[in-house]
Amino acid sequence: MTKAKIYYHDIGDYLSREEKLAIVKKNHSIANMQWQTLTPNEHGDWLNQRNDAFSSFIPLEPEKKFDTRTKSFFNTYAIGIATNRDAWVYNFSKQKIAKNMQRMIDFYNQQKEMFVEAKKKNPNIEVEKFIDTNETKISWTRALRRDVSKNIQHKFKENELNYCLYRPFTKEWIYYDKSFIESPGLWSQIFPTKEHKNLSIAISGIGQQKDFSILIVNSLSDLQVVDKAQYFPLYYYEENKTAQANLFDKTNENQYIRRDAVSDFILERAKKQYGKNVSKEDIFYYVYGFLHSPQYRETFAADLKKRLPRLPLVDDVRNFWAFSKAGRALAELHLNYESAGKYPSVIEIYNPLNTADTLKQANAKEMEFLNYRVGKMRFPSKTDKSKIIYNSQITVENIPAEAYEYVVNGKSAIEWIMERYQITTHKKSGIVNNPNDWAKETGNPRYILDLLLSVINISVQTVEIVKGLPKVKFEE
User: Fold this and answer.
1) How does pLDDT run across 74-97, given as a tens digit for each residue?
2) At 352, is the secondary structure helix, strand, or coil?
């Protein structure tokens, strides 16, 4: 028997069924399409074959977390937060998320008490068959059902409300009580309290569906900030079990010990190669800069879908510092994305509402919120992205085409703002998530518009910095 041959035609990524069929129809027959014969490599890869040079680089992650002797760039890392009940524990409104969670916790406790009574009559009763699964009242997960069976009481905790980066350049409130977060990760060691500062590099995880992405964060962050996000922090914190508090200590001052997450191994290697002035912070920003390299991302695109990044320490000391400085500049932009201001060429067209046409009783502040209120931003057409219709009063024009070249997690940073900053209603729970609530609660009517303008600005600047990165050649 002869071995079968497999033929392949690449029609591009992320196409719908209809788009794929349209390509076949255009060729009239599959016989008219160009085919390549597939042959697997030694790793068993038929498509997206990995590059052997990748294995010669230094891994980003340790084999074992918190391994201080690791021969990798970092000695620990964390997976992004996965709640399994986003509509309940995330919201643009601090007030609404507090009400939603209080309501859900009250219902949970009622169910728990009812189950305790029911179990007295029928010891064999199962939690899954007893509980009320009405999704407008609660979102059950395996952990929460287990809490019912263990007769665990929950209560709402105001101090568990915190900021979280939910998607690229999109902050929301999160109720970060581990009892209601299905996969909380190691974030209690990256940001043990609201007072503890830290930075972390988010990278796409193994098996991501979109092209490799990277983003720096300084707060709690979700699993889908980039696809299947893994986070590499600058520091991590350990609880100080020997500290004795005194009357003069500040809250949490001696409760935690800060440790470096950048390994001693990579610091020693970098100092030997680039000089004694290299610090772990320099290496951290080198990683952030290098992972933006188009040559690296294109050459090892297949490897980055199958494994976490492995990086070289570049031969030329000048290139090391160029990547590190670029990483710092990129971090400055991406961390301070809310306050970058408007790009010089961008124009705002503003035609405010007439009070008589809306609410005659509205005061000046209310009118300002009405004028800057967003429903859903849109482009004038599919082919024209130089303008964004913010709402019926405001249009943003003269947006540079290169701004859309800055892509994070499958779409431009600008389009992330357009997608996330719209009013949505979760079908199962009926919970409304309204970005205008964030603007109201922060007392800034222009927050969303200014955010859009700032992200346009940082996008252009990011593209310019990336184009200026050192060119690196890799062996195939």
Assistant:
1) 999 999 999 999 999 999 999 999
2) coil
pLDDT tens digit string along 19-28?
A: 667 766 767 6
Give me the residue label for tokens 């201001």: 341
Band of the pLDDT at 209, cuts 50, 70, 90? confident
The token pair that represents 314 in the structure block? 């570049």
214 strand-pairing partners = 203
What DSSP character marks residue 74? B
Task: Look up residue 92 and give its two tokens.
Answer: 């643009």
Cα 301-302-303 angle, rounded to 5 deg: 95
CA–CA gap between residue 379 and residue 404 (Å, rounded):
13
Banded model confidence at residue 271, pLDDT cuts 50, 70, 90: very high
Phi/psi of residue 442, each to 5°? -90, -5
Cα–Cα distance, 462 to 469 (Å, whole number): 11
Return the closest-CA partner of residue 425 out of 417, 416, 434.
434
Which residues are within 8 A (CB) of 111 and not within 5 positions of it... i.e. 6 or more apart?
A: 131, 132, 138, 148
Answer whether residue 375 shows pLDDT above 60.
yes
Q: Which pLDDT band, with edges at 50, 70 and 90, does 54 fall under? A: very high
With beta carbons less than 8 A apart as the criterion, state whether 49 and 41 touch.
yes
> How is residue 12 written in tokens?
């591009």
Q: In this structure, which amino acid lies at residue 438?
A: W
Q: For 458, list phi and psi in degrees, rounded to 5.
A: -65, -25
Contact 233, 198 (CB under 8 A): yes
User: What angle do helix axes 264-274 and 280-290 make, rounded to 10 degrees?
Assistant: 90
CA 97 → CA 143, 269, 364, distances in Å?
21, 47, 28
Residues in the chain: 476
Pair of tokens at residue 473: 């050649």
- CA 303 from chain center: how many Å? 21
Token digits of residue 84: 């399994």
pLDDT tens track for 224-265 = 999 999 999 999 999 988 755 554 444 456 789 999 999 999
Buried b (16+ CB within 10 A) or exposed e, 209-232: ebbbbbbbbbbbbbbbbbbbbbbb
8 Å CB contact between 394 and 53: no
Give the residue extent of every domain in the chain. 6-39, 51-73+192-244+253-335, 81-184, 342-465
Consecutive H or E run containing 467: helix 447-467
Mean pLDDT taken over the chain: 90
Rounded to the nearest 5°, which phi and psi values hold at 387?
A: -130, 150
